[in-house]
């Protein structure tokens, strides 16, 4: 078992300073396991809202929860949204000494409900799959191919990993989506999800996808929002610079988990991935997710002009603008697009992340950075 020390530290800090901590993320990503690890050596009461005995214990939630002390964990809280109002009442009591840790399989409305009802009382932590800092450096290829869901990454072989991912996808479509209140045929949603895999790394074109599926642009947009709200898809928003160039205004679409992307593309092994035309886009999304975690970002953007110049990822740190370019090339070269992006966006520094071995300065403000050194990004932004 991999101990997720960074997330345990985040939980410790959040629980100390906030009466309610919300740990959000997709199913099967390890929220319950992490919460139980965190609860060790703490006075804890645990409620699983998928358990009928625990639901019966909460028939009078204000009475049941109000008499407790220490840490109270409520797992799958989106199944009982009326608890949000109860928690607000309890944590506002002057004598309250309880800390609540609520776990939720991210849904489009759980964050909205918590934000509206528990404003100023809750701190959010998003738990995703394993990332490079949590696994052995030599396992990066398996992490890329299989993705970061624990049971997929830790499977005995690629075949077992593929079987787990297929089961996850079917359960998500047949149980999780309806459980959130969306009445969408599983076959239609799977077809959309599979088509979206071929758009990974591209800008969103709802009209084109809608025509391909015989649906309206509004309907396919609602499908995208469901996948985004459940942490299946990341919509990377465009950044608009105050320049004369015509700029792209639609978001880019990325799968959070490369393993699910590969499964929907029919790629089970390393050799399958390397020979597929989406290998570059897959690499881009995989590296983007790793960089997002290392940099601990709450927001980031991409930039693209209709003339061809673009930047894969743009973010801000200490009032300065930084950029990332992601290349699946063992000997990447500086391109005109990189130079244009650097000048147009006034980048303090640009890193080109590639699957090589060496870190080196290619230009005054452009560094070639191997994936194995991506964890140094958080320090590099402080030095430049």
Number of domains: 2
Q: What level of helicity do the residues show?
A: 40-55%
User: What is the terminal separation in angstroms?
Assistant: 37 Å
Class per helix and strand makeup: alpha/beta
> How large is the share of residues in beta strands?
15-25%
Mean pLDDT: 91
- Please count the beta strands (DSSP E, at least 2 residues each): 14
Q: Based on Cα principal axes, name the global outline.
A: globular
Record the strand order, biggest sheet: 6-8-7-9-10-11-12-14-13
How many distinct helices? 17
Task: Enumerate the spans where pLDDT stays under 50 for 5 or more consecutive residues.
Answer: none
Main sheet attributes: strand count, strand direction, barrel closure: 9 strands, mixed
Radius of gyration: 22 Å
């Amino acid at each position: 078992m991999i101990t997720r020390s960074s997330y345990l530290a985040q939980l410790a800090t959040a629980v100390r300073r906030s009466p309610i901590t919300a740990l959000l993320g997709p199913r099967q990503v390890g929220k319950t396991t992490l919460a139980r690890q965190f609860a060790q050596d703490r006075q804890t009461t645990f409620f699983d809202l998928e358990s009928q005995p625990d639901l019966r214990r909460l028939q009078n939630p204000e009475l049941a929860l109000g008499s407790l002390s220490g840490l109270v964990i409520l797992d799958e809280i989106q199944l009982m949204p009326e608890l949000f109002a109860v928690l607000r009442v309890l944590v506002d009591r002057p004598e309250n000494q309880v800390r609540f840790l609520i776990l939720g399989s991210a849904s489009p409305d759980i964050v909205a409900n918590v934000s509206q009802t528990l404003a100023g009382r809750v701190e959010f932590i998003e738990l995703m799959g394993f990332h490079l800092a949590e696994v052995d450096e030599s396992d990066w290829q398996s992490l890329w191919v299989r993705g970061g869901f624990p049971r997929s990454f830790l499977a005995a072989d690629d075949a077992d990993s593929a079987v787990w991912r297929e089961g996850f996808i079917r359960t998500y479509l047949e149980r999780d989506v309806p459980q959130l209140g969306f009445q969408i045929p599983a076959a239609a949603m799977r077809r959309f999800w599979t088509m979206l895999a071929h758009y990974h790394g591209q800008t969103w074109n709802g009209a084109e996808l809608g025509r391909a599926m015989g649906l309206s642009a509004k309907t396919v947009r609602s499908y995208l929002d469901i996948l985004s709200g459940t942490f299946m898809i990341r919509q990377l928003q465009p950044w608009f610079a105050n320049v004369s160039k015509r700029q792209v205004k639609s978001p880019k679409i990325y799968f959070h988990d490369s393993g699910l992307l590969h499964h929907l593309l029919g790629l089970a092994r390393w050799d399958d991935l390397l020979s597929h035309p989406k290998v570059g886009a897959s690499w881009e999304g995989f590296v983007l997710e790793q960089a997002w975690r290392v940099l601990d970002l709450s927001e980031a953007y991409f930039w693209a002009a209709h003339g061809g110049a673009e930047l894969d990822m743009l973010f801000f740190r200490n009032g300065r603008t930084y950029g990332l370019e992601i290349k699946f090339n063992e000997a990447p070269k500086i391109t005109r697009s990189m130079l244009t992006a650097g000048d147009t966006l006034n980048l303090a520094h640009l890193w080109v992340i590639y699957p090589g071995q060496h870190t080196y300065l290619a230009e005054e403000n452009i560094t070639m950075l191997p994936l194995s050194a991506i964890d140094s990004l958080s320090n590099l932004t402080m030095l430049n």
